[in-house]
Automatic annotation (TrEMBL):
Family label: Belongs to the inositol monophosphatase superfamily.
Domain of life, source organism: Eukaryota
Family matches, as InterPro entries: Inositol_monoP_superfamily
GO MF term list: 3'(2'),5'-bisphosphate nucleotidase activity; metal ion binding
Cofactors demanded by this protein: Mg(2+)
Protein name in UniProt: Uncharacterized protein
Source organism: Xylaria bambusicola
PANTHER family with a match to the protein in the record: 3'(2'),5'-BISPHOSPHATE NUCLEOTIDASE, PHOSPHATASE
SUPFAM superfamilies linked: Carbohydrate phosphatase
Keywords: Hydrolase, Magnesium, Metal-binding
Amino acid sequence: MDSPFSHELQMAIRAVQSAAKISQWVLSSDDKGTVEKDDLSLVTIADFAIQALLTSTVHGIFPDDKFVGEESAAELRDNPPLLNRVWELLLRLQDDEARSLCKLPRSPEEMCEMIDKCGFGEPGGSESGRIWGA
């Protein structure tokens, strides 16, 4: 592929493939790890893990880019068992080929930072002009 965005596309495809694995793991489990948000919508442990994975991977390659996403890590910080479940999902990728394809957070704290980089649904300015949705 000869495109000015081929590097971005290849990275995004790898990250989405890993995110799909996380979704499949949670979908096949009996407990989806759901939490009810203030607007009464549900968020699962997969939602948190995928947002952290996508943001961490893109940020690792394009550190000047900005992000927009739906989740905040506040619930994880207030709920250590939930934080641990999300972290364990990401750790499962370490034994997977995704580890070489994606940049995973190095700690639960960094995982929360990556989730919060998404600006609580409000994108900020970007030096590169790119804003990624996670």
